[in-house]
Protein: Iron-sulfur cluster assembly factor IBA57, mitochondrial
Organism: Ovis ammon polii
Amino acid sequence: MAAAALLRGAAPGCGGPAWSWRLRAAPRRRLAHSGCCQGADSASGATWACFLLGERALVRVRGPDSAPFLLGLLTNELPLPGPAAGEASTSARAGYAHFLNVQGRTLYDVILYGLPERSGEQPTFLLECDSSVVDALQRHLLLHKIRRKVTVEPCPELRVWAVLPRAPGEAGGAVPPRKTAECADILTPDPRTACMGWRLLSQDEGSALVPGGRLGDLQDYHRHRYQQGVPEGVHDLPPGVALPLESNLAFMNGISFTKGCYIGQELTARTHHMGVIRKRLFPVQFSGAVPGGGIAPGAAVLTESGQAAGKYRAGLGDVGLALLRSEKIKGPLHIRTSESGLVALTASVPDWWPTATK
């Protein structure tokens, strides 16, 4: 087998197939800032930025009942493994979903990886979640396990990476990255939107991940994510507070309105069929000086006349997310800081959202 096989076909869009590779374990190596991957050109710069997501962790769910067990808890269908384009072997696939509470509010946002079944192995899924809620997610799963034949356990041996083109704005149309023989266990497009690039699960602390790649600054990843309006983790999606449709779960391919029942489905389905979602998470950018301590989560966002437009959710520097009323986003907006100052901000509609929402 060639050391680097190019993923065939165009870059996946929203809802497209998630091709991936599953490789044998490689010796652990550390990733240097100067060049993380085979083929990196120190003169012209790397093609890919590889971000180690230390605040993301994995939980493994395996067993003969793992699929029906998860279907009863998640907002989406499961990403069942299948053959990649031009490949005879079965590959892992990724999907996006939320766990909800009985009131229909988000508890945990997860990226799911359906792993290929090998001879003698049980069906296995990996759940990527915020590392601060790994224990809470395991308790949530065990609470609903009852008599299901499933095993729930952490998966600390794999690390989560994000892979983006060095120019992140090109992620939606970039040629897919290639694997190397010393690379990761799983490489798959981010299932939320093509502009978020690829997800990589690796046993390595930083061996050759993809040819032409370098270790990226984690703040650059989060800035790109906020600019694209993609929430991730408990700061952007506070457990028991965030509503899935207001959090754009449908835009991020994270919900099925035709699957069977799951916890929290009633309110979510009713909101969808009513067809009225008055508030959404929008990406925002501050145009004024931001206080040294940042903007407090939950700070009121006001219109020019002082009317309430929504609330600030989370961010990094001059970019972030705010839950805003859709009819208020086109006018001037501001936040009143604790020092009695005003910070102006602008809300935008991401290019990758459905046209009907713009």
Summary: The first strand starts at residue 48 and ends at 52. The mean pLDDT is 82.
